[in-house]
Write a structure and sequence with these properties.
240 residues; mainly alpha; membrane; transmembrane
Length: 240
């Protein structure tokens, strides 16, 4: 666990201080972050808030890898806001009716929360078992470092999700531009013919993050599973 690694790195007193700081900063930071996070969801689209999740979670992961007291303290302070951000964006993504029709909402939530539970709850037990094995990796600290670097690489593999959403935004903007050129005097009528996910505001998705395009059911479920895998991997990294 984290406190065991801290004891090996910094001694019991510093480990206890970091643990206490984390226990206090987690709920306070999460509560304080809820206000700017709600504004982020209102003012940006999926491409924006998933990019923010990607940056913040990878920053947190990188801080946990660095074996310095200052970086571990920064990670403890960042955890609450990061946790608030990732879960808010996750549920905002799944609640988008332009991407996931209402009849699929229950199935999407159920399947994806199972995926999150598998990654987030089973992962720490596997990682703890690997750390406790003395047959590889040399010292315990070295095994911690290898596992944290591996988890950080897993988070970096999540970059296709925000890139895909940015690509959808550009494609939708191109379709809107084409519609304006075809019917410059009847833009409002043309806009009404587009699906909800194709409508983009000047803020790039104002109104809670409507999707950049309406997906088919299969591709929508695929993106939802990808989002769940990202969140689950974050859960395992945070628990580690």
């Amino acid at each position: 666990t984290q406190i065991e690694q801290f004891e090996l790195l910094f001694g019991e007193d510093v480990a206890l201080h970091l643990s206490t700081t984390f226990n206090l900063a987690f709920p306070i930071g999460g509560f304080c972050a809820s206000f700017p996070v709600s504004q982020l969801l209102q003012r940006t689209g999926e491409h924006g808030f998933w990019s923010a999740v990607f940056v913040v979670t990878n920053l947190f992961s990188l801080l946990t890898v660095i074996p310095l007291q200052g970086s571990q303290l920064a990670a403890a302070l960042l955890f609450g806001p990061m946790r608030c951000l990732q879960w808010a964006c996750y549920f905002q993504f799944l609640a988008n009716e332009a991407r996931f029709p209402p009849e699929l909402t229950g199935r999407v939530l159920g399947n994806n929360n199972v995926a999150v539970a598998v990654f987030g709850d089973a992962g720490p037990y596997l990682l703890t078992n690997l750390v406790s094995r003395v047959t590889w990796g040399g010292s315990t600290l070295h095994r911690y470092l290898v596992l944290k670097l591996s988890l950080h690489l897993c988070l970096l593999l999540a970059v296709p999700l925000p890139l895909l959403l940015h690509s959808e935004l550009r494609e939708s903007a191109g379709r809107m531009h084409g519609a304006i050129e075809l019917a410059p005097c009847d833009v409002s009528a043309e806009s009404e013919s587009l699906t909800g996910g194709d409508r983009i505001s000047a803020q790039g998705g104002h109104g809670g993050g409507a999707g950049a395009c309406t997906s088919t059911h299969g591709s929508a479920l695929g993106r939802a599973v990808a989002a769940a895998a990202v969140v689950g991997t974050m859960e395992a990294q945070e628990a580690r």
